[in-house]
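Extended Data, panel c. Modelled sequence:
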Amino acid sequence: MCSLTHVLVLLLWAPWRGLLGAPLAELSGDQDFQLFLHKNLEFTRKIKGDAAALQRVMCATFQLCKEEELMLVRRDLGITQAPLEQCHGRAFQVEGCFSQIREGLRAYHGSLAAVLELLPEHASLVETLQLDAANLSSNIQQQMEDLGLATVTYPPEGRSPLPAFSSHFHHQVGGFIILANFQRFLETAYRALRHLAHL
């Protein structure tokens, strides 16, 4: 058990060790940047909570609760995680990370339409999640402009954000996977923002 714990700690820590050497000292003393980080850390935490609440609704409504049980269907659907490789590792750069967070939030804003179709009785929660994702994306865009950072737009990798679901079950699984991916995306974004706040 002890060795498993050590392996998990190393796996969770390894992607972030590259952040420690990132040349970001010029931003660490910027009070406006620090205020932006602290406000948006809280905002990201709120969005994560709302996404988790929606995932619990999916579990209660469709009995889709464990992602590992849906791996075969997931592969068939081809729903992928929005990339955030610029937000960890030795290649960490504020411009690239912020651009990927912004682009990912825009992609999930669109993907959440599939969840809205599945849960019309929870439309207000889904629409709030979409609005919050759009607002966080706008906050990051504005901060990039304020800092004079280059805005990088990553290509969509030749795929539409949502597959055409062949059955209602696939639509349900797709909605569940979108929410699971969104939560992982938000966790990585949160860690990147938190790292910048502690420089």
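The CA atoms of residues 105 and 133 lie 5 Å apart. This feature is highlighted in the accompanying rendering.
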